[in-house]
Write a structure and sequence with these properties.
Radius of gyration: 14 Å
Distance between the termini: 23 Å
CATH architecture: 2-Layer Sandwich
Structural class: alpha+beta
Shape: globular
Order of helices and strands: EEEHHEEHE
Helix content: 10-25%
Number of domains: 1
Pfam family, one: AtuA_ferredoxin
Protein name: AtuA-like ferredoxin-fold domain-containing protein
Strand content: 25-35%
Organism: Halolamina pelagica
Oligomer: single chain
InterPro entries: AtuA-like_ferredoxin_dom (IPR056362)
Largest sheet: 4 strands, antiparallel
CATH class: Alpha Beta
CATH topology: Alpha-Beta Plaits
Number of helices: 3
Length: about 110
């Protein structure tokens, strides 16, 4: 990761992701490329940020779990797949594309602490 932490950054440039279904729940894992990227994710990739990105698709709560030993965050999104699996008429009934969509988001400029 570069030292340009005061600039906007594409999430895909500092992390990898994977997503899938758990019934009507969506699970999105985001793994940072290194410890500096993980710290930025911890500060900026909040449950509220994820909920805003999927507004209208995720109808329930979004909960974030931190996994510092592997520089990762896991997001559990409730009521996210229109019933899930065989019950949904959505194109992506198993939520496999959500991680890719999240990785296309830009994280905001980091705030400097004076």
């Amino acid at each position: 990761m570069s030292d340009d932490t005061d600039e906007e950054v594409l999430l895909a440039d500092i992390a990898h992701g994977r997503s899938g279904d758990k019934g009507n729940r969506l699970n999105i894992g985001v793994v940072a490329d290194d410890s500096a990227a993980y710290e930025r994710l911890r500060e900026q990739l909040t449950a509220a940020f994820v909920a805003r990105q999927f507004d209208g698709l995720v109808n329930g709560s979004v909960t974030r779990y931190e996994l510092p030993n592997i520089n990762a965050l896991n997001f559990l999104c409730e009521d996210a797949l229109d019933g899930g699996g065989q019950h949904s008429l959505r194109y992506d009934t198993q939520g496999k594309t959500y991680a890719a969509a999240l990785l296309e988001c830009r994280l905001p400029h980091e705030r400097t602490h004076d």
